[in-house]
Amino acid sequence: MAKKKVVIMIVEGVSDERALSTITQYVKRVFDVHIHFSNGDVFTKYSNKQAKAIVGDEIRKVMNERKFSKKDILAVIQVTDTDGTFIDNKYVKIDNNVGEKALYFGDSICVSDSYKAVQIQKRNKEKAHSLKTMYTTAKVMDIPYFLLYFSCNLDHVLHHERNLAEEYKDSKAREFSKRFKDKPNDFYEFFNNNDFVVEGSMKETWEFIQKDGNSLGRYSNFNIIFTILNEVILDVE
């Protein structure tokens, strides 16, 4: 029996992997979807590397761990949080009542002191550059590549929580996963018929999220993943 081809989906954390696990059922009869979590935001934790090289490293990790060859991989789909990346610096505000972690709001990112404000502004500039580079990148390691987003993060879109505490992420992800277990059509409907859906092409949806304060709003272009997978199905069949 021929080895099944695979689409790799890169997410930031294990709770993201769990929450989005129903996507693996969507195309099961044709090829596999393997979800790989990168233990954090790859676009902010490696400041000394170019974005394309960073993504390539994550692909190589999957290939080594799962014994995939390049010919086994039909496409790579990466999912990232926008984290308010595209807002103007003036909307990074100092509030002495904020604790150690930055807090995200509909119109601002609040931090406790000026040093953290500068760090967030620097992060935003660097991440914005990486995202602009990667959403316009067609291939990584000669493998078709696509970048999708949750804004301001996955918890915001799925659970209406911009600032969900770490200790609740796993339980919330389990609840969401359970809701759509063995219901790939309902999963599809959730991401295609909801008020957070950004309609349009890849280019159009990324242009939208860069405007004004949209990268702090509750938006996602994850619906595009179904178009990508359907196109891959046609190529395979």
Molecular structure report:
This protein has 237 residues and is α/β, with parallel strands linked by helices. The chain has one domain. It contains 10 helices and 9 strands. The chain has helices at 14-19, 23-26, 42-45, 51-66, 114-135, 154-159, 166-179, 184-192, 202-209, 224-236, and strands at residues 6-11, 32-37, 73-81, 92-94, 103-104, 109-111, 139-140, 143-151, 219-220. Strands 1, 2, 3, 7, 8 and 9 form a 6-stranded mixed β-sheet that branches. A 3-stranded mixed β-sheet has the order 4-6-5, with helices on one face. A hairpin with a 2-residue loop joins β7 and β8. The longest helix is centred in the middle third of the chain and has 22 residues, at 114-135. The radius of gyration is 18 Å and the shape is globular.
Radius of gyration: 18 Å
Number of domains: 1
Distance between the terminal alpha carbons, to the nearest Å? 16 Å
Q: What kind of assembly state do the chains in view correspond to?
A: single chain
Total DSSP E strands = 9
SSE string: EHHEHHEEEEHEEHHHHEH
Overall 3D geometry?
Answer: globular
Beta content: 15-25%
Total of DSSP H or I helical runs spanning 4+ residues: 10
The residue ranges in which pLDDT falls below 50 over 5 or more consecutive positions are none
Percent of residues in helices? 40-55%
Averaged pLDDT: 95
Largest sheet descriptor: 6 strands, mixed
Q: Structural class of the secondary elements?
A: alpha/beta
